[in-house]
């Protein structure tokens, strides 16, 4: 399909950058890099693809070549043919350099072609970070300061944007793909990329130093239970217990702080759901990656420019109950939808799952209680505690430890009410023994010695577990994990 014919189609589907005369003019506007509050480190030697701020002459050249591409090939360029687009850009670049008498070295030439290709088919300077499998998170504090997380450690990237306008252009391309908007009147937005990566945007005047954006990347290769064991996030005994719990339809709540791995673990646990069950997922911004086929994915919708038309998570949870689900998975409980989730778990939808922001299993229960109150009900505290105790069977606590490692640090079961409070007992835990010379947390996973109260339920469901997995044991020296 010709380029011009695909402009609107891509705006509403894939959401890639669109080539237009307006874009070309905006790139010229980007030619003068804006001063930033922090210095930008030089690109690593021998890394020709690393995007760095261009001299003004290169930025102007990029704008001019981009404009030529639009004028000459807008009707015939196929955005699906990456090599074809690259060939056209390379040819136009050589033509422009010859006609302008401008001389650049091969390294700058390669960077110029790559930058233009990223502007046309990707997300500009951001593209190379999204393509790097070692990067798990991209944090743009402002156009001239971009941090990335690799292997749990955060560092400053040499990648920068030429201006706030260029960053805004990339932001608009991303949010438009999911039918959302972000501007001065609505300066905050959650969105996602085509691969499911989660995006959060904040604009001025809320963001004082310029537009900022955070992208939580998801691995192209879905993490499997065995991978969690290999990475030291859990033991085989813990996962065998959790598999039995999910398969036997116990309800699971995953609790943890920001960037602790809650959604990743929820994806892993959901892989234990039998393939013949109907699953409905409800999320604020869709990011769950379920492996089953019989899945309905629902996503909340923000209000339109007139402040109308919003569809809240709570509305979707209520609607999900009418869709004959075997299980409901709420990506994250943040408010009044917690009450609807608990009621669903108590009315024939056992085995449902969700996540919550909390620093411990006890905090998770307190958060649930608070969120139920946010639903605007007049339920007494005892009734809320009873709802929670009967709906939630297992709480899995995850944590991002020092050094960046993400682990399951606790697995607990709710065992009923006592003195009006929901009681829990911990079955597995991570015991930290110290910190090594590089700042990484050391420790080991172990059972606490307490057996599950659901042993008979497991047996009745065909998920018999050996009693030995609940035996507490100190690890050998070689078993201490980082």
List the defining traits of the structure above.
482 residues, alpha/beta, Beta-Lactamase, Rossmann fold, 9-stranded mixed β-sheet, 6-stranded antiparallel β-sheet, 15 helices, 15 strands, 21% strand
Fold and architecture overview:
This protein has about 475 residues and is α/β, with parallel strands linked by helices. The protein has 2 domains: about 5-215, 2-Layer Sandwich (Beta-Lactamase), CATH 3.30.450.90; about 225-480, Rossmann fold (3-Layer(aba) Sandwich). About 35% of the residues lie in helices and about 20% in strands. It has 15 helices and 15 strands. The chain has a 9-stranded mixed β-sheet, sandwiched between helices. Strands 3-2-1-6-5-4 form a 6-stranded antiparallel β-sheet. Strand 12 (about 395-400) and strand 13 (about 405-420) form a beta hairpin. The longest helix is centred in the N-terminal third of the chain and has 19 residues, at about 80-100. The chain is elongated. Mean pLDDT is about 80; it is low at about 1-55.
């Amino acid at each position: 399909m010709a380029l011009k014919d695909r402009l609107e189609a891509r705006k509403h589907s894939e959401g890639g950058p669109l080539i237009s005369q307006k874009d070309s003019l905006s790139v010229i506007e980007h030619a003068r890099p804006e001063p930033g509050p922090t210095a930008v480190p030089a690109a690593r030697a021998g890394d020709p693809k690393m995007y760095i701020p261009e001299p003004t002459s290169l930025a102007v050249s990029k704008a001019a070549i981009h404009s030529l591409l639009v004028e000459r090939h807008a009707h015939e360029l196929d955005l699906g043919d990456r090599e074809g687009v690259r060939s056209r850009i390379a040819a136009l670049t050589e033509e422009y350099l010859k006609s302008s008498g401008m001389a650049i070295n091969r390294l700058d030439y390669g960077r110029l072609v790559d930058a233009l290709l990223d502007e046309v088919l990707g997300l500009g300077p951001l593209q190379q970070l999204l393509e790097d499998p070692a990067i798990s998170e991209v944090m743009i504090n402002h156009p001239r300061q971009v941090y990335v997380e690799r292997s749990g450690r955060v560092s400053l990237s040499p990648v920068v944007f030429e201006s706030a306008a260029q960053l805004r252009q990339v932001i608009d391309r991303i949010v438009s793909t999911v039918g959302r908007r972000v501007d001065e009147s609505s300066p905050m937005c959650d969105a996602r990329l085509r691969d499911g990566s989660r995006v959060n945007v904040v604009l001025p005047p809320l963001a004082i130093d310029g537009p900022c954006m955070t992208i939580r990347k998801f691995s192209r290769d879905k993490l499997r239970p065995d991978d969690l064991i290999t990475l030291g996030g859990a033991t085989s005994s813990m996962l065998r217990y959790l598999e039995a719990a999910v398969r036997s339809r116990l309800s699971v709540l995953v609790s943890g702080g920001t960037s602790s791995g809650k959604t990743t673990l929820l994806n892993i646990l959901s892989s234990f759901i039998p393939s013949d069950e109907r699953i409905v997922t409800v999320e604020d911004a869709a990011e769950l990656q379920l492996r089953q086929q019989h899945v309905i994915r629902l996503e909340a919708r923000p209000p339109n420019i007139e402040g109308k038309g919003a569809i809240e998570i709570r509305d979707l949870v209520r609607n999900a109950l009418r869709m004959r689900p075997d299980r409901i998975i709420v990506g994250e409980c943040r408010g009044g939808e917690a009450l609807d989730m608990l009621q669903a778990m108590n009315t024939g939808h056992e085995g449902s799952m969700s996540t919550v922001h909390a620093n411990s299993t006890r905090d998770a229960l307190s958060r649930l209680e608070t969120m139920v109150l946010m639903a605007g009900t007049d339920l007494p505290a005892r009734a809320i505690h009873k709802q929670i105790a009967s709906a939630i069977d297992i709480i899995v606590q995850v944590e991002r430890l020092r050094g960046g490692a993400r682990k399951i640090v606790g697995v607990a079961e709710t065992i009923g009410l006592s003195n009006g409070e929901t009681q829990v007992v911990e079955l597995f835990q991570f015991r930290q023994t110290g910190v090594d010379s590089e700042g990484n947390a050391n420790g080991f996973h172990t059972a606490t010695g307490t057996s599950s109260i659901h042993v008979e339920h497991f047996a009745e469901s065909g998920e018999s577990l050996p009693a030995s997995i609940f035996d507490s044991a100190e690890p050998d020296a070689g078993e201490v994990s980082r």
